[in-house]
């Protein structure tokens, strides 16, 4: 039986305010104009939302353009600036959960992953993310080999890509293995041999793009926490209409992960529950799903 517990988090508005908005704003681009007009007009004419914004950032990069000579290194450097915006209690969360699980069974390991529709090079620049997460999955750019400036999309994490990433985590496929063989995730693996069964998984997300992940994890015995911003009526409305009324999540909370916060304390309770099941080995999964 697996001794691993996996927590997977959306990034933007789940672990910090939207990082791509922070990026475009840092170049003096008005985010309302960018998302509300430029990207919206691409989406309403059929573009995939993720590809639309990534291509637009490429278009805006280069000599004399609004985002300038935007290299991967420049994106990583920008990523260091997002740390102060990361929500309370994220830093130190994995160590705390690991200690809670280890007190129940010292052989249990707690892993945390970012599964984001943001930009990986930016997220890789964050000290807090590097220290607290086992891997970061997000969009990647390729560069113009002559100038080093980003020029095209190398990997896109659209919303339907997120469940695929959860299956990679579920089956213990590393990013390097998936890069070398993107089809590996489709290989059959009996449920009992998967390093992080879905019943040992907890997913956190704030958006409609997270709903497929909520369903996947919960339908296989795991837990899903919806995140919302109580200061924004539209966020509360969406959380109520889509997450609560639709019964898509275990619970909905503001993104505060500290020990004494509502969400933070419930996450610790969820990890305790999973760890006790693993230690007691009492409810071995009855869910055999050979059709993944
Ligand atoms: Mg989000």
Which characteristics define this entry?
Rossmann fold, alpha/beta, about 290 residues, about 40% helix, disordered C terminus, globular, binds magnesium ion
Write up what this structure looks like.
Strands 4-3-2-1-5-6-7 form a seven-stranded mixed β-sheet, with helices on both faces. The two termini are 20 Å apart. 38% of the residues are buried. The protein has a single domain (4-280), classed as Rossmann fold, CATH 3.40.50. It has helices at 19-26, 31-44, 49-59, 72-80, 93-104, 120-124, 127-132, 161-170, 175-180, 211-219, 233-244, 262-280, and strands at residues 4-9, 109-119, 135-143, 150-155, 201-205, 223-227, 251-253. With 292 residues, it is of the alpha/beta class. It has twelve helices and seven strands. Magnesium ion (MG) is lined by residues 10, 12-14, 206-207.
């Amino acid at each position: 039986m697996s001794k691993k517990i996996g927590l997977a988090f959306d990034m933007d508005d789940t672990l910090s305010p939207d990082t791509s908005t922070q990026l475009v704003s840092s170049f003096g681009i008005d985010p309302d104009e960018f998302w509300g007009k430029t990207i919206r007009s691409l989406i309403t004419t059929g573009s995939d939302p993720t590809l639309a914004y990534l291509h637009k950032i490429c278009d805006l990069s280069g000599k004399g353009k609004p985002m300038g000579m935007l290299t991967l290194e420049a994106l990583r450097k920008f990523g260091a600036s997002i740390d102060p915006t990361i929500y309370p209690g994220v830093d130190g969360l994995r160590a705390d959960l690991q200690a809670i699980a280890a007190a129940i069974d010292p052989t249990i390991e707690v892993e945390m992953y970012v599964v984001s529709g943001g930009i990986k090079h930016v997220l890789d620049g964050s000290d807090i993310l590097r220290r607290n997460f086992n891997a970061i999955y997000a969009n990647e750019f390729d560069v113009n080999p002559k100038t080093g400036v980003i020029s095209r999309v190398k990997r896109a994490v659209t919303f339907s890509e997120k469940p695929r990433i959860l299956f990679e985590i579920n089956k213990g496929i590393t990013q390097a293995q998936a890069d070398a063989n993107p089809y590996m995730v489709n290989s059959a693996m009996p449920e009992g041999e998967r390093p992080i069964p879905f019943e040992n998984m907890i997913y956190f997300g704030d958006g409609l793009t997270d709903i497929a992940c909520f369903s996947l994890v919960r339908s296989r015995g795991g837990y899903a926490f919806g995140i919302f911003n109580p200061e924004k009526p539209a966020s509360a409305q969406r959380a109520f209409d889509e997450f609560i009324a639709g019964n898509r999540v275990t619970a909905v909370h503001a993104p505060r992960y500290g020990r004494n916060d509502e969400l933070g304390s419930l996450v610790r309770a969820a990890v305790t529950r999973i760890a006790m099941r693993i230690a007691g080995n009492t409810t071995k999964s009855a869910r055999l799903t050979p059709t993944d």
